[in-house]
């Protein structure tokens, strides 16, 4: 039975360690996305063209 208490204590310590590492990584900006905003402008025109084609199809169907 004492083994369960030891394993429980070790697992709580490991969980706290990983949580602290995660919080530190978030505070340092490890998960900030600096790539997508610079590439988004390259693909905006395609999204706008698709939307205008879809909206023109809807307009012609309702006429």
UniProtKB/TrEMBL annotation:
Recite the UniProt keywords alphabetically: Membrane, Transmembrane, Transmembrane helix
**May I ask which residue range the UniProt record assigns to the signal sequence?**
none
Task: Mention any Pfam family matching this sequence.
Answer: FixS
The answer on whether this UniProt entry bears the keyword Electron transport reads: no
Which stretches are transmembrane? Answer: 6-26
Q: Supply the InterPro entries for this chain.
A: Cyt_oxidase_maturation_cbb3 (IPR004714)
Query: Per its UniProt entry, which superkingdom is the organism in?
Result: Bacteria
- What is this protein identified as? Cbb3-type cytochrome oxidase assembly protein CcoS
């Amino acid at each position: 039975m004492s083994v369960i208490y030891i394993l429980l204590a070790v697992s709580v310590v490991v969980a706290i360690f990983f949580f602290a590492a995660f919080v530190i990584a978030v505070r340092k900006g490890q998960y900030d996305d600096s790539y997508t905003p610079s590439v988004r402008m390259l693909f905006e025109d395609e999204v706008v063209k698709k939307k205008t084609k879809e909206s023109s199809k809807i307009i012609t169907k309702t006429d």
